[in-house]
Amino acid sequence: MNNFPVYRNFVENLPYNIKLKSRARALRKAGVLSEVIFWLQVHKGMFWKIDFDRQRIIGNYIVDFYIKSLGLIIEIDGASHNDKEEYDSKRENYFISLGLKIFKISDLRVKHDLNNVMMELEKYIIEEFG
User: I need a labelling partner for 92 at 20 to 30 A (CA). Which of 15, 73, 77, 116 fits?
Assistant: First the structure.
């Protein structure tokens, strides 16, 4: 990505439900394995010097990862998303209405195909923000 200019999609004044703050902190501490694996690839600017937030509150929802400078949500879908198609769809439509983009990864792919997941994320960022 160093050779590709990436434009910013900073969405200002995102809604924030303060009541979710302790829940977001608890989720960070609990550390779902696939999220921890992904976090180790991206924290401290390790992934193209991009700043990732973990368990970020947006409105009445908590997203797995958020890139503020791009307005990009990264969701790792595991068992917690099973049988929640309607809820997930409502949630995604809400994020899109705020001008955010969403990149989804399956829990299993993070655990078993991490290199390709990271390459796909890089490609997605270049295509969407380049």
Answer: 116
pLDDT (mean) for 68-83:
84
CATH of the domain at 64: 3.40.960.10
Residues in the chain: 130
Q: Give alpha helix (H) positions in the chain.
A: 21-30, 33-42, 85-97, 107-112, 114-129
Residues 6+ apart with CB under 8 A from 105: 38, 74, 75, 76, 77, 117, 120, 121
- Over residues 9-32, the pLDDT tens digits come to 878 889 999 999 999 999 989 888
Q: How many domains are there within the chain?
A: 1
Q: Name the pTM for this structure.
A: 0.91
What are the φ and ψ backbone dihedral angles of 101, each rounded to 5 degrees? -110, 155
Query: Which residues have a Cβ under 8 Å from the Cβ of 75 and sit 6 or more positions away?
Result: 63, 64, 65, 102, 103, 104, 105
Does the residue 4 lie in any domain? Answer: no
Examine residue 17 and state whether it is found in any structural domain, yes or no.
no
